[in-house]
Amino acid sequence: MFPEMGASEKEVLRELEEKTREDLTFDSGKILGSMCTYPHPLAVKVVMRYIDRNLGDPGLHVGSQKIEKEAVDMLANLLGLEKGYGHIVSGGTEANILAVRAMRNLAGIEKPELILPESAHFSFIKAAEMLGVKLVWAELNDDYTVNVKDVEEKITDRTIGIVGIAGSTGLGVVDDIPALSDLALDYGLPLHVDAAFGGFVIPFAKALGYDLPDFDFHLKGVKSITIDPHKMGMVPIPAGGIIFREKKFLDSISVLAPYLAGGKIRQATITGTRPGANALAVWAMIKHLGFEGYKEVVREKMELARWFASELKKIPGIYLIREPVLNIVSFGSEKLEDLEEELKARGWGISAHRGYIRIVVMPHVRKEHLEAFLVDLRSIMAILTQ
Ligand SMILES: Cc1ncc(COP(=O)(O)O)c(C=O)c1O
């Protein structure tokens, strides 16, 4: 009910505290199945300081707009371009929708089709529905990467583009993006890489010596990349990233916003009014941690993920779906349903999907949290396999 009279600030805050007691928090160490994390303290400070900035009306907040452009360029730079075109958006979903919108608008084809791996995130289903694009799903190989031959066989004269995944949602698998890029170039199609998760992992993991395929703008067929600072970038939600190689992609999705207080602009994002503070936090985090800082975060979490995978393998009745590629470890069990239920009853923030449980070793996940999880897992499995 909408209250007739207002309550005191103290009362409102007390009620909020009481109601959010049900929430699982990242600092509890119980959230192991999320791609979000507790944001970095500097990013929190920046968001609080600049909470009123609206990048939907950049004429008013010219400084913030310049900072967003710098953030986009730094992300583009991380991904192999000197200069990129794009935005800090609300997340991977919006970034993927914008990429599909650009591919559709530039193709200008009737009954457009988009080819994407069966492992692709559900945001593409939303994009397809909203944009009237038919999704054509390509099969996966035994290692869960997309089958490039199957992608090729599915190309028709209605194809507007191809999607590859660099860090799949379920398993953190990186598709053979070099082969997809070659294919895209051969057929004159744009390749969009969904690196919502992997974008803030793969460049650093490669620098640490992990053997991972190229996935970014170094490959000429790659025309756009989704990269989410609110995942491994440690920026508060909402902070996604869409980077295009060429200006024409951004232009193709820009519409006139004629009435803004800061003056007319052309706007490409799905959201009109949108937070400047989070874009500033992306800029601040990149400046603060730099390549070496993020590399250290990735080093620790990649090593922890491998240790965790090796411990899982020792538990009777548990098997890995595949060796971890990034800092995601997914495992199955014949008793999956009972296991999921029991883990949830013990307060763990995990879920089972496609026949496995996914653990994402995010920055807030520490070894002692995984050790506590393993204690529970061992004891549940001992009961279930009796
Ligand atoms: C590969 C991939 N793409 C896109 C998304 C969507 O991101 P968001 O939830 O920030 O919209 C996710 C989310 O987990 C993802 O894993």
TrEMBL record:
This is Probable L-aspartate decarboxylase. Keywords: Decarboxylase, Lyase, Pyridoxal phosphate. The modification N6-(pyridoxal phosphate)lysine is found at residue 231. The gene is mfnA. Its EC number is 4.1.1.11. The keyword Lyase applies. The keyword Lyase applies. InterPro entries: GrpII_AminoAcid_Decarb, MfnA, PyrdxlP-dep_de-COase, PyrdxlP-dep_Trfase, PyrdxlP-dep_Trfase_major, PyrdxlP-dep_Trfase_small, Pyridoxal-P_BS. One of its GO terms (molecular function) is pyridoxal phosphate binding. Its cofactor is pyridoxal 5'-phosphate. It comes from the Archaea. It catalyses: L-aspartate + H(+) = beta-alanine + CO2. Belongs to the group II decarboxylase family. Sphingosine-1-phosphate lyase subfamily. One of its GO terms (biological process) is carboxylic acid metabolic process. Pathway: Cofactor biosynthesis; coenzyme A biosynthesis. It comes from Thermococcus peptonophilus. Catalyzes the decarboxylation of L-aspartate to produce beta-alanine.
